[in-house]
């Protein structure tokens, strides 16, 4: 129920009925949403600070929100403030992360470029090139199958190749792109015409957590494309050292500052950070010391009996 419920529905159940599970699910959705937007604008590393600050502000302020109609605008206001403070966007670049197996996203894109086909390579290169005007992009897309369908098809075909040829564990690759996602590649390419249009799209993202996952997992490659990844020469695929690579942040898991499961109305620790692993480490050390003491005592006892 929680996975399909909207954040507004979960908020009502948490606020009006004291449903802790609904509160936890709501907090997780906001965490995933915040992560998707900060990753899309800054990448994992540079986006960590605005993400954590926004999550903390959410933790401190959510209990003061009383009207469902205010929820999204309030939550986005927290995010937008920290986006602006952090510089709004990075211009693109090469940002390896756990999802790429700490390999260069640019190198991975160049390695699969030859499998994508020249028309789709050109279309994606133009989409993510700020020097290409929208009219030229639209004309190229129309020749390739239509605007924006051709761009969406090229984007998802690129994701398939990254999975099949480079073993990048991407999860969201629909067979037929939803045309309602028309603004998606334009958003990732920083091509929205106004800040208001960009903000409206980001607010819309919270209505579809699967789309948030799509944006988050492609963010490193979108940044690489904006940095000119398709302008270089193809390179061999660098395979990861291990067969399975798990992302270090959402969509598969919340960031360290994300809301925890103890989400209760009126609790100041609603969205407390995850607990440190230090107690587990100390516990292991203590167990080792006890085992050594047992061995020493047993040895002394054996010598005494002898």
Task: Write structural notes for this entry.
This protein is mainly α and 306 residues long. It has two domains: 7-231, no CATH class; 281-306. The chain is built from eleven helices and no strands. α1 (7-17) packs across α2 and α2 (20-61) crosses α3 (71-86). Mean pLDDT is 80; it is low at 233-306.
Write the layout of secondary structure elements.
Elements: H1 7-17, H2 20-61, H3 71-86, H4 105-116, H5 118-127, H6 134-143, H7 149-166, H8 183-188, H9 195-205, H10 209-226, H11 278-305
Helix pairs in contact: 1-2, 2-3, 2-10, 4-7, 5-7
Strand content: under 5%
* N to C succession of SSEs: HHHHHHHHHHH
Oligomer: single chain
Shape descriptor reads elongated
Major beta-sheet overview: none
Average of pLDDT = 80
Determine the structural class based on helices, strands and strand pairing: mainly alpha
- Gyration radius, rounded: 24 Å
Uncertain segments are 233-306
Kindly state the percentage of residues in helix: 55-70%
State the gist of this model:
The protein is mainly α and 306 residues long. It contains eleven helices and no strands.
Give descriptors for this structure.
single chain, 306 residues, mainly alpha, 2 domains, 59% helix, 0% strand
């Amino acid at each position: 129920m929680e996975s399909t419920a909207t954040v507004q529905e979960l908020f009502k159940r948490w606020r009006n009925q004291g449903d802790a599970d609904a509160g936890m699910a709501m907090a997780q959705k906001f965490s995933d949403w915040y992560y998707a937007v900060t990753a899309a604008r800054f990448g994992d590393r540079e986006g960590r600070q605005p993400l954590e600050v926004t999550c903390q502000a959410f933790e401190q302020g959510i209990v003061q929100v009383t009207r469902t109609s205010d929820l999204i605008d309030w939550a986005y206001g927290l995010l937008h403030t920290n986006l602006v403070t952090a510089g709004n966007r990075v211009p693109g670049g090469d940002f390896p992360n756990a999802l790429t197996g700490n390999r260069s996203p640019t190198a991975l894109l160049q390695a699969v470029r030859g499998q994508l086909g020249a028309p789709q390579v050109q279309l994606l290169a133009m989409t993510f090139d700020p020097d290409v005007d929208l009219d030229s992009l639209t004309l190229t897309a129309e020749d390739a199958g239509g605007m924006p369908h051709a761009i969406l098809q090229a984007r998802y075909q690129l994701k398939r190749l990254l999975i099949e040829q480079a073993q990048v564990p991407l999860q969201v690759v629909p067979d037929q792109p939803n045309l309602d996602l028309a603004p998606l590649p334009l958003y990732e390419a920083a091509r929205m015409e106004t800040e208001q249009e960009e903000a409206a799209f980001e607010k819309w993202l919270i209505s579809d957590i699967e789309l948030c996952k799509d944006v988050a997992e492609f963010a490193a490659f979108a940044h690489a494309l904006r940095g000119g990844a398709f302008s270089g020469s193809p390179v061999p695929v660098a395979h990861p050292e291990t067969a399975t690579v798990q992302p270090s942040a959402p969509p598969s898991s919340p960031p360290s500052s994300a809301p925890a499961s103890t989400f209760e109305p009126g609790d100041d620790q609603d969205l407390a950070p995850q607990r440190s692993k230090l107690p587990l480490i100390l516990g292991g050390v203590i167990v080792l010391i006890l085992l050594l003491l047992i061995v020493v005592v047993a040895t002394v006892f054996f010598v005494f009996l002898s």
